[in-house]
Amino acid sequence: MIEIEIGLALIAIMAGLVLAGVPIGIGLVFLSYIGIGLIRENWDLAGRLLALASYAAISDYLFATIPLFVLMGLLVSVSDVGKDTFEVAQHLLRRLRGGLGMATVLANAVFGAVTGISIASAAVFTKVAVPQMMRFGYSPRFAVGCVAGSSILGMLIPPSLLLIIYGVLAEVSIGGLFLAGIIPGLVMAAGFMLMIWLMATFRPDWVQPGAAQMAPPPEETTRSLLMKSVPITTLIGLVLGGLYSGIFTPTEAGAVGAFGALLIALLRRRLNLAKFWRILVETGFVSVGILFLLIAASMYSRMLTMAGIPASIADLIQALGLGVYGFLFVYILFVLLLGMIVDSSSILLIVTPIAAPIAMAFNLDLIHFGIITVIAVEVGLLTPPFGIGAFAVKATLNDRRIGLETIFAGCIPFIGVMLAVLALIVAFPGLSLVFAR
Q1: How far is it, in rounded angstroms, from Cα 228 to Cα 384?
Q2: Of 41, 107, 130, 307, which sits most exposed with the smallest number of CB within 10 A?
């Protein structure tokens, strides 16, 4: 059996293992060892190469970014910053149709600028925004769909864990990816808000059937708004300002952000030793899981390269005459299908080692390609049966009256906006590269 046949057979086996429920990291490591052993016909060499990959894959100083941003996100989540952000956005948008829904989107966008974890956003705003929207007559389907749909902004607006993972796998600048995510993230947030306004204006029965008029403005003073805005704006200024001005590297920005989030939680008296220990333990679990997956993906990438899979697929696509847009169409469709059965990090681990070299063969900018990939992966957070964003809302809400089918139905308009923004980014690469260049 020649190398290319071995590689293709192992990709097919990997798909079977995913469908069978085998943990993605275990499957990648196992198949990488089998593939290298068969290709080189030397099992001892296969073991040594994988041992070397396990060290080289995460030995770089850059990988400290992952636990630091995870820690920052968890600290922000417990300090009620999300609640305050929502209340400020609610006040600012109180006179617009669908104002509470738009406030949820705006708060998610701001919150995502300091967490980078969509699940954290979904959990926070399920507790904060859903009860408030239902109180003022918004339909349960719209309320939960709005929270789940807008929670994905945390995975696009920097800092983003998905962008970090893609940057490591594709070996491109994480700082450049962060810069590239700004405009697409803002465009998507604006698209969500426009969609909510249009629905509230022309089909109010879909949005707020329980009220004849908009919710009354919340009682807020200029001083209270400023006090609620200071923590989140300070943290954003520290992390993104330092990062984009060149004062901090991504790793240093993560450290500064984590320290700032710790100070905020302490000053607001939302943290004690027991809660802080639980946050540290959860940070460890999340970070180790991600780092192990990156090790497995590094091994898998080496095996595919030895088998010549990326080069062969690129040659096949060029021979079929699909061109760059044909390749992107097939690639995006494949990622969307994977999103129905596989979580977002695992999708990146599976497709990036194969797709990034092909994208380079078509002279695609890997930073632009990364933004396309992350947006396509984000759609999977909202699509059944595996949509983890919907599951996070359901678990946090804990309301038997609202089922998963209601949440998935509420996400449909947001998926439509995401696909429209994805098409826009594909057609106009400058939207993602204007700051990254």
Answers
A1: 36
A2: 41
